[in-house]
Automatic annotation (TrEMBL):
Main location: periplasm
Gene: lolA
Keyword Secreted appears in the UniProt entry: no
Name of this chain's protein: Outer-membrane lipoprotein carrier protein
Gene Ontology cellular-component terms listed: periplasmic space
Subunit (UniProt): Monomer.
Locations listed in the record: Periplasm
Record family assignment: Belongs to the LolA family.
Keyword annotations of the record: Chaperone, Periplasm, Protein transport, Signal, Transport
Superkingdom in the source lineage: Bacteria
NCBIfam families found in the cross-reference section: lolA
CDD domains listed in its UniProt record: LolA
Amino acid sequence: MAPSIRIAGIFSLISLFFLSLSASAAPDAVTTLKNYLNGLNSLSADFRQVTLTPGSSGEQAFESAGRLFLRRPGLFRWEYDTPSKQLIVADGKRVYLQDTELNQVSHRSQNAALDGTPAQLLVSDRPVEEFFKLRPLSRDDGRAWVELEPKADDSQVVRLQIAFIDGQLDTLLMEDRFGQLTRFMFTNIKRNPKLSDALFEFKRPVGGDFLQID
């Protein structure tokens, strides 16, 4: 064997060796998700939410934006600022949805409302595999993607896809039973901030409709 060929072969083996080391050292997307959730106690972030028309090729139905707060286990506050004011509060027992324009509040059991949703994923302190089937996704966008399929048969959500950049939450995609796809993009994320109890206490407004769903 010619020396040049032999040397080239040796360098190829060395390259493959270091590539395999890099692959084994870098956590896969599922591990990234579990690590992120295991150390999560509270979170605040700005969000932009884009909902696509079912069956369309990316046609945008509407867009909204606001801010979210959560504290584990079981507490969250989701504030919509645009295009209209809405508030969703989970106090550990019930979830309240307040529509300011309609002057209406609806509420239901938290367990039923959150089944298979992104909120359940983020606010539950139980193992994620208890509620979702997990699998990593391969995409060439610099993000670590995980797909989650709810285990509950009656979940309104078909699948979630979550992306991380450098171990930090970046994007979440949600597909419901009607084929509607919603994308959440997060900015100004603060991990484990100290949050006031008052954020997760719903105060019933004076007047208007107060509807109990279950």
